Predict the structure of Aminopeptidase N.
Amino acid sequence: MNKFSWIWLASPLLFACSETATPNAQSASAKPQPVTEQFEASTDYHSFSNPDQVRVTHLDLDLTADFERRVLHGQATLSFERIDEAAKSLIVDTRDLMIDNVTVDGTKVDYDLKPADPELGSALQIMLPESATKVTIAYQTSPSASGVQWLSPEQTAGKQYPFLFTQAQAVHARSFIPLQDSPQVRMTYEATIHTPQELLAVMSASNDPDTARDGEYHFTMAQPIPSYLIALAIGNLEFQAMGERTGVYAEPELLAPAAAEFEDTESMLELTEKAFGPYQWDRYDLLILPPSFPFGGMENPRLSFITPTVIAGDKSLVALIAHELAHSWSGNAVTNATWRDLWLNEGFTTYLTYRIMEQLYGEDRYNMEAVLGYQSLQTDIEALKAKDEILAIDLRGRNPDDVFSDIPYEKGALLLREIEQKVGRDNFDAFLMDYFEHFSFQSITTQSFIDYLDQTLLKQYPEKLSKQRIKQWIFEPGLPKGAPVPQSDAFAKINRMRSAWLDQEMAVTDIKTQAWTTHEWLYFLNNLPQELSADQLQALDSQFNLTASQNNEIAHSWLLIAVKNEYKPAYDRLYEYLVNIGRNKLVKPLYRELSKTEEGKAFATKAFNEAKSGYHPLTIKANQGFVEK
Ligand code: BES
Ligand code: ZN
């Protein structure tokens, strides 16, 4: 039940609307339904809104951040188009919002806040006077809004100022703005944000690096974007330029290390433009978040949000930046129409990421990253149910957050790799350039992609490509026979050394690791046998100091091995890791593994309870099942 459900009791319209909301969304808590032929492929099952009748085109936001109460309060003005002239109401999504009032041209209008679905929130139906083109909703957020994290000063790098950030993808924008929270609704936006005077606000919009720090900040996003790309952060932030169009926002403690780590961002931007068409968002900046940020990165337009856990000191984890940057083409310019089509965002982006990494850092690095991605995909395929290995996944009745896997990423990228290999790289690049131009600023379904392919590459290269094969990739589980398999010579060497050591043909002191990159370490560790003896673990650790590794990915791989083998000398480090990092991809596998034994679960529970006040709502939700209640 919505925390503020008394609001709809107070609504004058309680169940008395002449027109009932006919939401697409079904209760996400209901049992998932079997895939059927009647599947409505362009329907967004995760929004209650009615863009086919009345479509929001612009958002005007005025919000104040109250750090004491942990609420955002103010108003959202929505401008809309009537698609269906007969439509009498606008339906927007909300989640745990307290609605103060709804007005059109200063006059209060009737509204109905429907009962809450636990995953999707509450539809807010607003009755529209005939001539209305704008409505204003005055509201405030809940302190536990699923899309907002409020951090105390201790949870930041500087420890002196509080911090706030939002994370809207997939269905959380509705927890801080009442809007049509569907990726097929695109809007421009303007915002005024009021903060404590000493803090700076930034958004996924135009940010003026020279703005006076006066507690009032203005933003404009002139290109129409889907709601999941609206983002806000507030903190003790400073800016440093990295290139002409690129820069970084971070707390002062992290600013110089971040700018050094990510100094290749400008080159990435330039080479991506050259290969795939113009960058359409003017500036590209990075925002470094506190370590509780639940993802590696989030492609908020003009301002990607980035976890600090990738600042390794040697640029070894910058594929993340290439990835978020690439979303400026695949995702932000050409957007998935529903969450079922997420692979159009993530698969294209993963493919582009590999291409950027190859061009900037060479083929060896690309090959290594591709093999690691492929292995990670294989691990997921082993664990997933067949129906969740389908690119165009059926998400009806489920929260998209609960079905997160490598399928849309790595399987999607492999499909594109196969097409590239069949038609030739130059031809495929020309196709991609056209694709981004053709669908720019549109939200498209998997079917739109298939139809477009039908009119282009499938027509041009009928002897090389078949529609049947493409459909097999998109609608069938697993990988089709003959799918590309990435290979790395550098890793072949690692395999030989690992085997020689395991077969006791080589002493640990003879494993020549001096020149190993992070990727070689990850490959060495990830492919050790599941079971290792205490002596073997001890030998590796004392020779290579793995427990002390400050590279968060290497530490993750090592700690996972430690948990699987109950290697206790690493447990202090494991505890510290779990308490200090909130990036779900890094902590979830550790919690999952710990939960398999009673002792492990007790350890996990202790760490989780200590960390919980600093974890993001998404990280809490994803891991609470692994610890004791
Ligand atoms: N857009 C995603 C993050 C996301 C996906 C949030 C789905 C919510 C729902 C972002 O671009 C991403 O893919 N991040 C990855 C990066 C990695 C693949 C390089 C991450 O955070 O791990
Ligand atoms: Zn992504």
